[in-house]
Design a protein that fits this description.
By secondary structure, the chain is α+β, with helices and mostly antiparallel strands. It folds into three domains: 30 residues, no CATH class; 261 residues, Beta Polymerase, domain 2 (2-Layer Sandwich); 60 residues. Helices cover 55% and strands 14% of the residues. It contains twelve helices and seven strands. It has a seven-stranded mixed beta sheet with strand order 2-1-3-7-6-5-4, sandwiched between helices. The radius of gyration is 39 Å and the shape is rod-shaped. It starts with a helix and ends with a helix. The N terminus is likely disordered.
């Protein structure tokens, strides 16, 4: 029985004779063992936020979303048209078909999938320029505490090709539907092609930096008022928390200056868009200056608070020393009369007790008045 099974197995493994292809395929399905195939690629269905074709400064097809393979075919057929594909936190299974349609380098795919914490920068791989920007949003709070989140950040990657622009956003901050809506209302800018998307996204990010800076300035004003108020707490951990949040904000704003300068020097940038990007760079410079001033102001507030704590501690020590001096008077007098010598003035007299207590009160009261007048109490 066992030998027959081995013989059958050997016969199944022999090469097939010259038979028609359909017969070979049928026999192969019978004799092939059940080997699990590769798992189907299930991309993130919510990763594609919007996709549209733009030509002549207008969106074609109305507000309806076009599948990006079809949009790519339409953009290639029409001169001056381009595709804007918006993605939010795509996974590798989502980016691979996108890369096949738009011809993206594998490094761009890996960087787009990884997301989170990218430093602002610009680089060019082949015909595709990659621009990375950090998003920032002010988190509303009633009171600044040691655990308050003040600034929430994310990142946006803009891939600019000859006939397409792909925006990849990571994090809940900085949705781009408002950017798309605003750009669609400016056909003279949208007519400049894919680079208009890079300008619009960069402009919105810089505007968000200025908005965050304005709100943070209000927080700093409140902290400054608390610092120099007559009634203040000794806890200033919330100041350190705001300083930590400012470090995160600085990492989003300050490094963007160099990529913007390099972008303005890029040969692929249309000449008509340069004035717009110059305006973005000017607004970014204002944001950088404000963030830098925040850091200096926070350091000044911290130094003032530390000086106040030192003064308060010295004041407390003076009070302790003053009360210790007052308490030393009755302690000394009581100690002298408590030595139980046989011969001591006033020990056997009925007025001795009253005299000692009166002396304690007189000297203690005099010390209290003197120390109170000098500011020690």
């Amino acid at each position: 029985m066992l030998g027959r099974e081995r013989g059958d197995r050997r016969r199944r493994l022999l090469p097939l004779p010259d038979l028609p292809g359909a017969v070979k395929s049928f026999i192969g399905t019978i004799t092939r063992p059940d080997v699990p195939g590769p798992a189907p690629r299930n991309g993130n269905p919510d990763a594609v936020v919007d996709c549209a074709v733009y030509a002549g400064g207008l969106r074609h097809g109305g507000s309806a979303q076009v599948p990006y393979p079809e949009a790519a075919r339409l953009a290639r057929r029409r001169r001056g048209a381009f595709v804007w594909l918006g993605l939010h936190e795509p996974d590798l299974a989502t980016m691979r078909p996108v890369a096949e349609v738009f011809g993206l380098h594998e490094l761009l795919v890996d960087q787009a999938v990884s997301g989170g914490g990218h430093r602002p920068g610009v680089e060019t791989l082949g015909e595709v320029t990659r621009l990375v920007l950090r998003t920032a949003r002010y988190v509303e709070h009633d009171k600044l505490t040691a655990t308050s989140e003040v600034v929430e950040t994310g990142d946006v990657t803009v891939l600019i090709g000859p006939w397409f622009a792909i925006t990849v956003r990571h994090g809940p901050v900085g949705p781009l539907w408002e950017v798309r809506k605003e750009l669609q209302s400016r056909p003279e800018v949208l007519r400049q092609g894919p680079w208009s998307v890079a300008y619009a996204v960069g402009s919105r990010m810089v505007d968000s930096y200025l908005d965050v800076a304005e709100h943070v300035e209000h927080d700093l004003e409140r902290i400054e008022e608390e610092t120099f108020a007559s009634e203040r707490t000794s806890d200033f951990a919330h100041i350190y928390q705001l300083k930590r949040e400012m470090v995160e904000f600085k990492r989003a704003v300050l490094p963007l200056a160099e990529p913007l300068s390099r972008l303005l020097e890029s040969r692929g940038l249309p000449v008509s868009l340069r004035p717009y990007l110059e305006d973005v760079r000017g607004r970014l410079a204002r944001a950088v200056d404000r963030v830098g001033s925040f850091d200096d102001l926070l350091n000044s507030i911290l130094q003032a608070r530390l000086a106040q704590v030192s003064v308060d501690q010295n004041h407390d020590m003076r009070k302790i020393a003053a009360w210790a001096a007052i308490a030393a008077v009755p302690t000394v007098i009581a100690g002298i009369f408590g030595m139980n010598f046989d011969v001591m003035p006033g020990t056997g007299e009925p007025w001795g007790f009253y005299a000692s207590v009166g002396t304690m009160l007189l000297i203690g009261g005099g010390l209290y008045h003197r120390l109170k007048k000098s500011g020690w109490l």
